[in-house]
Amino acid sequence: MPVTEDTTQEEIRPSPRDAASGRMPRWLPRAMVLALSLVACFQFASWAFHELTSLLLNILIAFFLALAIEPAVDWMAARGVRRGLATGLVFLGVLIAVAGFFALLGSMLAGQMVTMVEDFPKYLDKVISWVNDTFHTELSRVEVQDSLLHSDWLQKYVQDSANNVLDVSTQVLGGLFKVLTVTLFAFYFAADGPRLRRALCSVLPLHRQTEVLRAWEIAVAKTGGYLYSRGLMALISGIAHYVLLEILGVPYAPALAVWVGLISQFIPTIGTYLAGSLPMLIAFTVNPWYAVWVLGFVVIYQQFENYLLQPRITAKTVDIHPAVAFGSVIAGTALLGAVGALIAIPATATLQAFLGAYIKRYEVTDDPRVQGGNRKPKGESRLARARRALRRGGSQPALGADAEDGAGAALAAPAIVGAGDSAAAGGAATVGSGAASSVAVGSPGAVDAAAVPEASGDAPAVGPTAKEPLGGPVGEG
């Protein structure tokens, strides 16, 4: 008999016949089979997850890539382009950009390698001369070259490199296969986005469908906004550094500018300094002072980007705190490696926006400990009162310091207060019995409250619960 929640102790307890005969209870074999089945299912699920980790990771990358390019696909689809063709055009643009980056970087590295090989004898002569002068030796370049070429470690290194050619080729082919897998999944996710969302919503109730579609929209907005904002800042950074490198005459300025723009924007926190190190090294080979100029420009531009450029561009896309961004990158790197570092910030921005849409927030208390600085005094400033007086054409004098410090001086306008006996003061104010007076500042026909008693011969009646502040102007109602 299977063991369920409704099974009583009497049903579980062996029958007197089973107890007397010493036989196994009838429910125990089924319970053992059930436990063994659960353990086997858990082991199989763990093995399958471990084997499919690479595929699941590629699907995750493809999903975020599809979210990033979906705004561009939707924009072209809204103008009559089929989604499949629009997705293909977007991927073609991405492919051209990536190929151009690697072509520029490869040309720079190849040029540097050729230059180093050509100048190697010159550098070797300088080193040998320094050693001979310092240690009083008589080394020659021919002897050093022969010793290097016939050394055991160099021959072993060449043999190991030849044996590792097959491993390197296998890794390159594996990397190309992963790129192809990610591209294929991302293409289908972006091209068949509406069909995918329709299939997902078809298994959910109506209220859950609204929540899923809203979460999807938030993810698209944040991921796409992160990519486009970073791309724009990378373009601006690359142009700025290209101008500097061209002025200084540093070689490979276009490739270095592209390197600085991409690395500084897509690797958070340390990306700027990592990107600036390569131009500094290249500039140092031209002139050591050029490296100092490049370092100073990198630091100054970083401050300009952090305080002026980045808040304006990312205010409506991925506005997350730098500490949260840095922590998310560390967590993503620990979980998924380099891929986690790339998708950590858009994933965090999506989660933050999703939680902000569903978490209820309350009004914060007016306390100096939560204001982040000195609180500004309430009420209208003198500049605002003077500006309002100028707009009225000088018909009403602005309140000066004496009027501000005086007791009971305020601008009054015709006000109507609900039920109760009203006291009219020269037709300017109507104040209900026992009700707070409502004052409109700056309205047409407003008169000085201090002048009302002189015009009517009697001061306006103010209820016992009036809340006008003494010694200051009344704010706009």
Automatic annotation (TrEMBL):
It is found in: Cell membrane. GO terms for biological process: transmembrane transport. GO terms for cellular component: plasma membrane. Keywords: Cell membrane, Membrane, Transmembrane, Transmembrane helix, Transport. It is a multi-pass membrane protein. The keyword Transmembrane applies. InterPro entries: AI-2E-like (IPR002549). Pfam families: AI-2E_transport (PF01594). The chain crosses the membrane at residues 31-49, 55-73, 85-110, 172-191, 232-250, 281-304, 324-351. The keyword Iron does not apply. Residues 1-22, 451-477 are annotated as: Disordered. Belongs to the autoinducer-2 exporter (AI-2E) (TC 2.A.86) family. PANTHER family: PERMEASE PERM-RELATED, TRANSMEMBRANE PROTEIN. This is Putative PurR-regulated permease PerM. It comes from Streptomyces zagrosensis.
